Model the fold of this input.
Amino acid sequence: MQTMKLIGAVALFSGALLVSWVTHGTGVVRDDPERHISIPDTLTVPLQVQVAYNDQDIFFRYRWPSSSMGIFHDVLRYEDGRWITEGGEMPGPNPHGMHEDRVAMMLDDGSVPEFGRYGGYITVGAGLAGLTDEAPEEVTKYLPLTRNTLGQWDDMAPDSALTQLRAAGYFLDLWHWRGARSNPANEADDQNVSTGRDGDAGSSSYTTNWDSDAGQPRVMFDIATGGYRALNWDDVRNGRISQEQTYALITGEAVPFDPDAGWQNGDVLPRRIIRPGSGSRGDISAEGRWTDGYWDVTLSRALDTGNPMDDKILQDHGTYDVAFAIHRNATGGRWHYVSLPFSLGLAHEADIMATRFAGAAPQWSDSWSDVTLFYPGQVTWPSLNSAVHGGASGIAARVPVRARHSPEQLVHYGIEHEFRTEIRRQWLMTLLAGVLLIGGFGVALNATIASRKGA
Done:
C-alpha cells in the first residue's frame, strides 16, 4: 500500500513538474494577422538628424538604414486581360515589397504641452485603424482634447470648441515624406494632426491612376522618352528598378493610357500619378536618395509659410518639440518605428540644435543628432492613463516619459501590452503549475518518510 502511495506521489510530482515546464516555456508572443499583430524582427532602428536654417527656410536632413529602396506604394499588374492591384496596407511587411518607405516628423511650438512630454503617444487614441480593437470606420491619429471623453473615438468635441482649440494652436504640424507618392515630385506631404491626421489646405502630390468608369489605368509611361510603356512585375518585386530609371508616372511626362498597346502578363503601372502639391499642402520641398542600404532625405520649408492655421511658424532663437517616425521594409500603417519627443532649438540650447547659415543651401557637416526609434506596439493614450498602466500617476503628475523610460524599455512594454491577456493567462497557468509542483513534492516527501517508517 505504501509503495502504491509512493508511486502515485512521484507521478503527481513528475506531472506537476512537466506542466510547469511546458507552460513556462511555450511563450505567447507571435504574429497574429487576424488581430493585426506583427512584431518586427528588429525592434529598434537608428535615425540620424541634422537641422539648419537661414533667414527664410529651415532644412531637416535624415539618414536611416533600409534594406531596400521602397519606392513603390501600390501598382497595377496586368494579368490575363485585366489589371490587378498589388500592394496595400497589411499587418507587417507586404510580401511583394509593395509599400513605400517613409519618414515623418511631428512639430509643435508648445501649444500642445503633452506632446513635449509624451510625444506621439498622445495622438494614439482608442479605435485607431490597425489596432486589434479598431473602430468600425477608419480612425486616424487625433489629439485628446478633440474628444469629449478620453477613450471615446466617436465622441467629438463641439465645433465651437474645436475652432477655439485650433485658433490657440492646438494641433501638430506633420511633415510626411513618402518614397513613392511624394519623392518623385521632390516634395513631402504637409499634414497636421488635430481631430484626425489630415492634409493641409490644397492638394497632395499624388492622385489615382485608376479610371473606375473605364476599368483601366488613366496614364502610362511614354515609350518615346523612357523606352517602355510599363515596368516588369519581376523587376519591381525583386528590387531591380533604380532611382535612375523612370519609375513614377509624373504629370506632364506620362501619356494617356492606350488599351490597345499590346499589354503582356506581368506589365506593371504605378497606381498613383505624381504631381506638384498645391496650396499649404505643397509647402515642403524634398530630396531623397537611397544608397548602399541607407536613405538620405532632406526636407525644407519656409520658416513662416503664411499658414498659421496649418503650420507651426518658426522663428530664430525659438525652441520647439519634435518627434520622428519611419516606415521601412514594405510596412505601412501603425507598423512603423517612432521616437520619444525631443526639443529643437534654433540657435538655442536644446536636444537637437539647428545651425544657422548664410546662402541658399546648408553645407552639411559630419555631426549628427542620434535618435533611437522603436516599435511602439498598440499602446494608446487612454491605456496609458488607465489602471492598466502602472505609471498613470506619473502622467497625471506630468512626469515626462524620457524621465522614466528608454526606447529599449518602451519597445518591450509595447509588445507586452499587445499580449497582456495572454501573458496574464500564462502567468496564472505557471502559478497553478508551481502550486501543484510544491504540493506534489510535499506528498511525495511524506509518502517517502512514511514508507521508511513502515520499513
In short: The chain has a mean pLDDT of 92.
